[in-house]
Amino acid sequence: MIIHESPAGTLEQIDWKQYKGSRAINPSSLAAGLRDYLQVDVRAIYNALHGTYTEPSAQAQDRMDRGSVVHMALLQPERLGTDIAVWDGKVRRGAEWNAFEHDNAGKLIMRKPDYALAMSVADEVRYHEICVHHLRDSKAEVAMFTSEDGVDVRGQVDAVSIKRRVIVDIKTTDSGVSDRDCESTIRRFHYREKMALYRRWIARITETDPYSWKCFDLFISMDAASPAINLVRISEDALQWGEARMINALQCYQAAVAANEFPIMASESCVSVAPWEMSEESEVYVD
Question: Which residues of 126-144 are buried (b: 16+ CB within 10 A; e: fewer)?
């Protein structure tokens, strides 16, 4: 599902290729330039938007493909029989492989062990009450177009229920899904900041109160023997904090574009000793 803010403020369908081909700024590109709270590397944002695409390794691509199958099984199970082709060969090269690729052009081609793993995990979690409850009445793969201060922006989120005002982004991982694991991943990949923009834009397009929306990251471990899930709600404080960071990053990037200057990020700082690092018996003096 793709939604667009037309001049009249209504929602209209946009072709998927139009979304993928758009040069509008997306949250991932903005997040590439986030450093400390209001510190922004504008060159990193520019490179994320205009840099050369690097093909992922075969191992990384296999991980992403397994995640895609889990997403599909949870949100669009009707696509499993038509959009995926399973390769049962040992190697992905040679005449037989080339013919298989040709016959299944446009489909997600997966190795049989990867598909079996993904479906094993999906079958374990998709009927769990957490998934059933939070993904019900949801539209899948919701992409949005709007603008910020005249700058075209776009975003895409896994599941949106406009009826219940719930946004869920699904994160498959080969790591653990403990609270600490999830929090570390959320911080590392700026999921709070990205979710803040998804909520801001969806609320604007649907003409709803942004504070009425609930936002979640649903972590799923890709462990066939012991799959696990952790539904992490993004708090209101985190969303407001994340939105402030992202809007600031966008404004910094706009200023860099206007000046046509993308310098390296440079700063000076000083490290000292925190009070909690000092012993109770002595004091530490730092010039």
Answer: beeeebeebbeebbbbbbb
CA dihedral (192, 197, 202, 207) positive or negative: positive
DSSP annotation string for 11-64: EE---HHHHHH---B-HHHHHTTB-STT-B-HHHHHHHHHSPP-PPPHHHHHHH
DSSP 90-159: SSS-SHHHHHHHHHTTTSEEEEHHHHHHHHHHHHHHTTSHHHHHHHTTPEEEEEEEEEETTEEEEEEEEE
The residue ranking higher by pLDDT, 280 or 101, is 101
Three-state SS at 207? coil
The class level of CATH for 1-54+128-287 reads alpha beta
Q: Helices 191-206 & 179-188, crossing angle to 10 degrees?
A: 70
Which residue would you say has higher pLDDT here, 37 or 284?
37
User: How confident is the model over 36-88, as pLDDT tens digits?
Assistant: 989 999 999 999 999 877 889 999 999 999 999 999 999 999 999 999 999 99
What number is the average pLDDT over the span 223-236? 96
Is residue 258 left, alpha or beta, with left meaning phi > 0 and alpha meaning psi from -120 to 50?
Answer: alpha
Provide the residue ranges of all domains of the chain, joining segments of one domain with +. Answer: 1-54+128-287, 56-126
Burial class (CB in 10 A: 0-12, 13-18, 19+), 215: buried
Q: What is the DSSP letter of 171?
A: E
Per-residue pLDDT, 259? 97
pLDDT value at position 52?
A: 79
Q: Give the DSSP H or E segment for 67.
A: helix 58-75
Q: How many CA atoms lie within 13 A of 280 on its CB side?
A: 0
